[in-house]
Design brief:
Elements: H1 6-12, H2 17-32, H3 43-55, H4 74-98, H5 106-129, H6 138-143, H7 148-154, E1 159-162, E2 169-172, H8 179-199, H9 203-222, H10 226-268, H11 271-280, H12 285-302, H13 342-369, H14 375-390, H15 399-419
Antiparallel strand pairs: 1-2
Organism: Actinoallomurus acaciae
Transmembrane segments: 6-31, 43-62, 82-100, 112-133, 181-199, 206-222, 228-245, 252-271, 343-363, 375-393
Protein name: O-antigen ligase like membrane protein
Length: 420
């Protein structure tokens, strides 16, 4: 329901909401078999994190150092939205992990995630070639809202158009709400696409998979997404080492051949020029650094244990109390404190305790599985490595975190069944 129909949900304005809606029947199913539920090691840290998020409601209207004082009830919407996603991610983790391979085959879930890579690729190509395309979704017509937070979730757009290189450049975002979400989704769905469309596929399916993979590189290159570029290199190195460890000399030869082919594709592609141009135009580096520093400083001096529940608008700009957005200079302002990186959101919204609990859960899962050589064990570790990188640069509350939880569930279940 969620993945097969995702392009339709996106067009209807339900692309983000469908995950939350379908968590209800999954939650009901888990409740019915609550006496037999299994949880992974480290789950206690995750429950502590959820509890700490809920505690944050008590500080939603506390004034944060360096932020605009006061606040409206709209702050509760962003808070509730994040809690809903954290709960949905928890439910899908337990749902996938507690079903046996007869009830819900791992390969079926892997194929769905591989299919989502194809959807992500199609959306990326659409955003690259039709960057100004926008639609008014039926849900948007019904709600008739002016709230920018809601509009991001229900208003279908194909791309964000920026002038990072000094001229207009499309950064694909379809079928997601943000360009950075598109980049995270690409990296997280990729390992499962490789498993189900290339590695464990017949000849015809493998050829189609290679064609899709090559086509996907076009929006990756022109997305100007440095975090995505680095994460793909990390995934390639880790999976290559695992392949060599599992397959010996034959796998080593295949890995070397893959590196040679990949190097040739890289050399003849526009990526080297794009990387050079992106390095020469750092664009948001300074602002990101200042925002991260101020978010951490505000949290540690104002509410280090609990945080502030959700983000806050910066008072003035990052360099001056009298700065801010003004006509003709959108970049003169600053994003809210606790954005531009999920780690900064955790520290600012949930304090040190919430941040540590969040990190302990995922570090525990990686530590339990990084030695494994099974397909879904390696795929899950690749996802967690990319996830760890993205924590510093992306906001990961929505589809990315949901996908990470599915990856964790698959590798935990594979390990459990192998042990049995």
């Amino acid at each position: 329901m969620i993945f097969i129909g995702f392009p339709i949900w996106w067009l209807l304005g339900l692309g983000m909401l469908i995950f939350l809606i379908m968590s209800v029947p999954m939650g009901v199913y888990l409740y019915k078999r609550r006496s037999r539920l299994l949880v992974p090691r480290g789950f206690g840290a995750w429950l502590l994190f959820l509890a700490w998020v809920v505690i944050g409601v008590g500080v939603l209207w506390a004034d944060a150092p360096g932020a605009v004082p006061g606040g409206s009830m709209g702050r509760l919407l962003a808070f509730a939205w994040r809690i809903a996603w954290y709960v949905a991610a928890t439910i899908v983790l337990l749902y996938v992990a507690n079903l046996s391979d007869d009830e819900l085959p791992a390969d079926r879930v892997g194929r769905l995630l591989g299919y989502m890579f194809i959807v992500t690729t199609a959306g990326g190509l659409l955003g690259t070639f039709l960057p100004h395309l926008q639609l008014t979704s039926p849900l948007e017509m019904v709600l008739h809202t002016k709230n920018s937070f809601l509009l991001d979730a229900i208003h279908p757009k194909t791309a964000e158009v920026d002038t990072i290189l000094g001229y207009e450049q499309a950064r694909p975002m379809a079928p997601f709400a943000y360009a950075n979400t598109w980049g995270a989704a690409y990296a997280f769905f990729l390992p499962f696409f490789v498993i189900t469309w290339i590695w464990r596929a017949d000849t015809r399916r493998r050829i189609a998979g290679i064609v899709v993979l090559l086509a996907s590189l076009w929006p990756v290159v022109y997305s100007l997404d440095r975090g995505l570029w680095i994460s793909l290199g990390v995934i390639a190195c880790f999976s290559g080492l695992k392949m060599v460890a599992r397959g010996g000399r034959r796998a080593l030869r295949l890995a070397v051949a893959g590196l040679v082919v990949g190097g040739l594709v890289f050399a003849v592609s526009p990526l080297p020029d794009m990387i050079q141009a992106r390095i020469q135009n750092p664009h948001s580096n300074n602002r990101r650094t200042l925002l991260a520093e101020q978010s951490v400083r505000s949290a540690l001096t104002g509410s280090p244990i609990v945080g502030f529940g959700t983000t806050r608008q910066v008072q003035g700009s990052l360099s001056s109390l009298t700065g801010g957005d003004r006509p003709g200079c959108k970049a003169c302002g600053a994003p809210p404190l606790g954005t531009q990186g999920h780690l900064w959101l955790l520290l600012f919204a949930n304090g040190i305790v919430g941040t540590v609990a969040f990190g302990v859960f995922f570090l525990t899962r990686f530590a339990r599985h990084w030695r494994e050589r099974s397909a879904y064990g390696v795929a899950g570790c690749c996802v967690l490595l990319a996830f760890g990188l993205f924590l510093f640069i992306y906001d990961l509350v929505e589809v990315p975190l949901y996908t990470v939880m599915i990856a964790v569930a698959l590798m935990w279940r594979a390990r459990r069944e192998a042990d049995a």
